[in-house]
Amino acid sequence: MNRQPIFDTVRDLIGRGFMQAEVDRIDHAIDLATGGIAANAPHPMKRATSVPKAFRLGPRGKALIRKWEGCHKRRADGRYDAYPDPGSADGHPWTIGWGSTGPGIAKGTVWTRAQCDARFDADLQRYAAEVERALEGAPTTQAQFDALVSFHYNTGAIFRATLTKKHRAGDHAGATREFARWIYNDRRPLAGLVRRRREEAALFSSGSS
């Protein structure tokens, strides 16, 4: 049975990714409904010794992202122009407001400040949900979570980064060192990325045991 459409639908309804405990509960319910397990099978929540907490981006994380992204290219009329990525050779991706990229953002795109702020808030929720999903229920402090969301907002690499794997494994010192590897754009180190990764690593390590 392909369960992906069920998980995709529930994810869309709740507006975020899943914690591992939630995945276990949904799998259990599907197995009960389809006869895959006996009705008296132990419930996954009853077997668990602890349930991972649901995270939201904290004020320190949001402030860090706002600091490094900025809301750029303000016009004389108060609106904002899209601009090419200053660190890439071809200017892609085109960016607007608080570092927003994606479909519909290209040369000539103009947004109001309200549009920039609304997209920023939506992006923060999306990136935070993706980080939570990538952590797979690993113990995480608020400071660590905030640092990882800032990292992911800038790189989009939370699912593939060795940093994430080290954190899930409980190697917080190793994860802290991994931030410094993500300082390149088109294979060139950028001073701004060096400073941003340094601040993210400091925030991450401030919450490490």
Give descriptors for this structure.
209 residues; mainly alpha; Lysozyme; 2 domains; two-stranded antiparallel ribbon; 52% helix; 4% strand; EC 3.2.1.17; lysozyme activity; Bacteriophage_GH24
Low-confidence stretches: 45-52
What would you call the structural class?
A: mainly alpha
Number of extended strands: 4
What do we call the CATH topology of the largest domain?
A: Lysozyme
Biggest sheet strand order reads 1-2
So what's the overall shape? globular
Text of the CATH class of the largest domain: Mainly Alpha
Query: With helices defined by DSSP (H or I, 4 residues minimum), what is the helix count?
Result: 9
Enzyme class: hydrolase
Protein name: Lysozyme
Keywords: Antimicrobial, Bacteriolytic enzyme, Glycosidase, Host cytoplasm, Hydrolase
Catalytic activity: Hydrolysis of (1->4)-beta-linkages between N-acetylmuramic acid and N-acetyl-D-glucosamine residues in a peptidoglycan and between N-acetyl-D-glucosamine residues in chitodextrins
Would you kindly provide a written description of the structure presented here, covering whatever features stand out?
The chain has two domains: 4-47, no CATH class; 59-206, Lysozyme (Orthogonal Bundle), CATH 1.10.530.40. It starts with a helix and ends with a helix. Strands 1-2 form a two-stranded antiparallel sheet. The protein has a two-stranded antiparallel sheet with strand order 3-4. The chain has nine helices and four strands; from the N terminus they run ααααββααααββα. A hairpin with a 2-residue loop joins strand 3 and strand 4. The chain is globular and about 65 Å long. The chain has helices at 4-14, 20-34, 44-47, 59-69, 113-135, 142-155, 162-168, 172-178, 191-206; strands spanning 80-81, 110-111, 184-185, 188-189.
